[in-house]
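User: Here's a chain of 149 residues. Predict its fold as tokens.
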Amino acid sequence: MRVGDPAPDFRLRDQDGVERRLADFLAMGPVVLFFYPAASTSGCTRETCHFRDLAGEFAAHRASRVGISMDAVDKQAAFAAHNRLDYPLLADVGGAVARLYGVKRSLDVLRVRRTTFVIDESGVVREIVASELNMNVHADRALAALSTL
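Assistant: Prediction complete.
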């Protein structure tokens, strides 16, 4: 995936077992779609909580925050509840959506590359943030990109 590419639509279940589509999120405004390697790990907890803590800033841009990992629905549910996450976490158990977005690693142990996509309302990728070590850069750069839409 590159900036300017259309974002592939998908269907995945969220932490409550509800099927979600990218198109449904886009109908409400821009989407910040972020892939994280594994729920309940230290880096992923820092990243998802930073997205949580910036809820007001994302709301000001009418942007939906959507996290995706290869964890099962029940693990996503426990992770969301424990950290009081106020946005959907999607269960990409087989990694099909991660493959569509080009972030699936060849070894399942490492799962996905930590990557964030800022997608405008027309479904076009406007920013890609890739950092394995700086957990806050994902939400921070996504907000910067949203301010230019």
